Amino acid sequence: MTEEPQGPQTGDDLRTLAKVVARLSAELTVVKDAVAAAALIEQAKGVLMVTHRSNAEQAGEELAERARAGSRSLAEEARLTLDRLSSALLDAPDSGHVAERVGSDLFSSARYRNGSSLTTSPAPEGDHAEPLPPGTRRRPPLRRRRPHLLMTQEFLDALSGSVTLLTPVRGRGGNVEDYRIDAASPEAVDIAGRTGRELVGLRVLEAYPTVLGTELWDGYRSALETGTVWTGAPFEYEEIVAGIPRLSRFQIRAAPWGGRLVVSWERLDAGEREQHRNTVMQRLSNLGWADWDLLTDTITWSEQVYTIFGRDPGEGPMTLEELPRHVPAEDLPALGANVQRLIGDGRPIDHAFRLLTPAGVRHLRIVAEAERDAEGDTVEVHGFFQDTTATRNIEHELLERELAATAQRIQLNAERDLAARLRHALLPLPQQSLHVADVHIDVVYQPAHQGLNVGGDWYSAIELPDGSLFVVVGDVAGHGMDSVGTMAQLRFTAKGMAVTGTPLTGILGRLNLLLLHSGDSLTATATVIMARYQPDTRTLTWARAGHLPPLLVRGGRACYLDPPDGVLLGATHDARYTEATLALGDGDELVLYTDGLIEKPGEDLGESLSRLVAAVTATPASHRDLGDLVTALGVPGEPRDDVCVLRITASRSSDQL
Questions:
Q1: Which of residues 267, 292, 315 is at a domain's end?
Q2: Which of 387, 408, 441 is the last residue before a domain boundary?
Q3: What would you measure as the largest C-alpha separation in the chain, in angstroms?
Q4: 381, 317 in Cβ contact below 8 A?
């Protein structure tokens, strides 16, 4: 294998490196500021030691006390102390003597904010100049420089815009090595965002190292050497802001003044950036501006209007005469009336219309106002177009969903109304008590779908023409309206056949044939238990078709009756059904029920039947409520399956149903 040569660094690598450099530069600036502040404090303490003839500790306490009294920091108080002393030196007639007494060396190294010197001009050279240690520069006496710089700064404070005073920094041969910013206008803002006094004391190459050798650098030198004003062409400078390269453009002017340069600059890309922001805003909001000059018949569009209209910018803006050809005929009258109102009456408009574009129909909004001359005639129109197609599509979709939801609510209400009608037609009340023959009957009925209030479980309890009682409880497989329809067929057929005197086994056989020949693609099935009670003999005859056995409660004990033969309805053509008999005594209870009362997911049927026995025998018969029995068996308010429970209690009273 051979190692592939590495290419140049990518833009991401350069950005990462720029971020690191920016962070290190910021940390270095913080360290410099801290060192400068500490130096100021030490210099001020030295001045106080000389002027007050105190030691270092006393001078430090004096400086701290002054700072507390003036609510200033130590660095601010130190700077103020040095400023006061420098002013005293300038105002005193024997300032040279005072400087000598205090020690001019204290001020030769004093630094202002951002590291600027108290002195701002190069040291004089000549026979009278004292020798200096290598690597140091001589500072002139303060009385020669300070008043001039103070006046210059006061003058710049009254100026607007970005203006600075640059002092050349010369090397041993007299060549200009750099420029130092000695004064700046308050509104001055450089490429790094530094303003006003933050610029004072900075050196040009330290702050902007890439200008060396550029046209700007040569322009400074030309203005300084020739004494003429230099105005540069638009100057581009790449700055690193938060680790991201950014190109800025400036117009710079340098004017010589007393051996220094007065430099002013104007940022040219501010308007361009503003225009870029406007373009982005128009694109994001999908709107663009348009101007019409009616006197010159000139139309001007922003870039986004071409995108909205789907028009090639090379074709130019669309004229008012051309616009109707791109508007659907049904939208033209209203649009024309609004345009007439705008141009003829000078009233602003806000109108929505459709536009035919190569990409299809778009929904647009125009908002415009007119400018009128002294005679009241419209001369200019200003406005914007906005593409509202996406919003209209969302509104249309929301409307469709609302209509669908309304239709569904109407359908559900209709189903509930139909279910209520079915319930009243098919079943008695969900919970009731009644007397038939000489027995008392209690009923509880809970459908699985509470909104329908009717399900596949059903019951009947009627007195037959011969005075006997006919009782039936059934359970149709499934839920919903299909099971309700099957239940209605079985219930009314069973009642009709019982009234005609058909035996129980005959009724079950015919119900079985009814389900087998119902004509449905999927044959329905059902379980049924029915009984006929003869009051004169107190004998109960019963039969079943695949249904759970009834529970007999006698003398405080409960047991299930042995069921006769009988498969569920709709299972086979060869179904065979038999009967069984039971004599009821006073106080006997017979409970008929559907599987929804006892079954639980994952529970064995034997355990479910045992729970029913325990629940029935847990309460004395005189206090036993059928609704409490359903609750005790853990049937929730909205059961998973239909629940139907019918209890027959032998007694001496009877009422006709």
A1: 267
A2: 387
A3: 153
A4: no
